[in-house]
């Protein structure tokens, strides 16, 4: 019956080969762990590496790279590679509007990022003009904005994957209070210059799930959607959108593909 539907035995053979290749490509490009590699309960399966957690969920675990702990911005640079002009005060760093977005010297692929931020209690404005900033992996932005009471378009709220996906809920704390993002970024995979697995973001805002393994349709853009362009590892960026904002306690864990 199957043969009659799609043609001769030879055609069926080709069809099966094509299916096999497609399945192989999926296995190559999927983020899913390969369960078929190990027998259930196999003792030969490598044991997970030991990691000492921080004292609280927001403290860096032992395998994290600390990007900012209040000391200095030695892990960061301006867009042109010069020293950032943002001000370190106490345990936080404050955006100096007009001095530019800052980015990490190191670049990252798949990663777990923790960052805390506080909006400016003295800021005036509305919509996108109230304590606007952003946490980026390269050109992919998780929006930072004071949307505690401030109304704006949903895909531009705090915790939005800007211009694409609004947060699942509005988990904003009141203006001026410290808030957190915990972000899991999976970089896009490319083959022959084409994207075969889009970038995904999972985001917790103040511990609340606001993005659930959401697949981006391309880089962050304003007003129109733009297509993916092939890239490798990317720096983490904190945006200078012209507003005074604070950041503190920033750490990142690289998610090693070989251990999946
Ligand atoms: Mg922004």
CATH topological fold name: Jelly Rolls
Q: Tell me the domain tally.
A: 1
- Distance, first to last CA: 41 Å
- What class, by secondary structure content? mainly beta
Order of secondary-structure elements: HHEEEEEEEEEEEEEEE
Estimate what percentage of residues fall within beta strands.
Answer: 25-35%
Calculate Rg over CA atoms. 22 Å
Task: Give the oligomeric state.
Answer: single chain
Helix content: 10-25%
Number of separate strands: 15
Q: Which molecules other than protein and nucleic acid are bound?
A: magnesium ion
CATH superfamily: Exo-inulinase, domain 1
What profile does the largest beta sheet have?
8 strands, antiparallel
- Given as residue ranges, the uncertain stretches (5+ residues, pLDDT < 50) are 1-7, 12-28
Which second-level CATH architecture applies?
A: Sandwich
